[in-house]
Design brief:
127 residues; alpha+beta; Jelly Rolls; five-stranded mixed beta sheet; four-stranded antiparallel beta sheet
């Protein structure tokens, strides 16, 4: 019984450590020229859950990637749009440096997750 208890505690702490290790910084939407210094960076629309402000039924999420690199290699980022903390996911979209991604979204609370292996800046806003 002691072995089972200690093994259970070990797996519990291992699971908690893996969840904590996967967390990444979250920025508000809109954000402009945010430096992406980690592999994953998140953006979250800031609106109150209780009595939210009325908004348009259809909107567009806009994402651009820019870099100061002089490399001849194509720099791109993977972008996912996430609604209500994972209830719905759109993507992945591949956004090249200098391109603008435009995705139609509804009036729910949306967030954006960007994964990039290069040092880039991202701008995220809703139009």
């Amino acid at each position: 019984m002691k072995k089972f208890f200690f093994v259970s505690i070990f797996f519990l702490f291992t699971g908690i450590a893996s969840v904590v290790a996967q967390s990444f910084p979250v920025n508000p939407i809109p954000s402009y020229n945010v430096s992406l210094t980690t592999l994953n960076t998140g953006f979250q629309e800031i609106r109150p859950r209780i009595n939210p402000l009325p908004s348009r039924e259809k909107r567009d999420m806009e994402v651009t990637i820019s870099s100061s690199s002089t490399s001849s290699m194509t720099i791109f980022a993977k972008v996912w749009l996430v609604k209500d903390n994972g209830a719905s996911t759109l993507g992945p979209y591949f956004v090249a440096e200098g391109d603008q991604l435009t995705v139609p979204i509804d009036n729910g609370r949306w967030g954006v997750v960007i994964r990039c292996e290069w040092n880039v800046s991202a701008s995220v806003w809703i139009d």
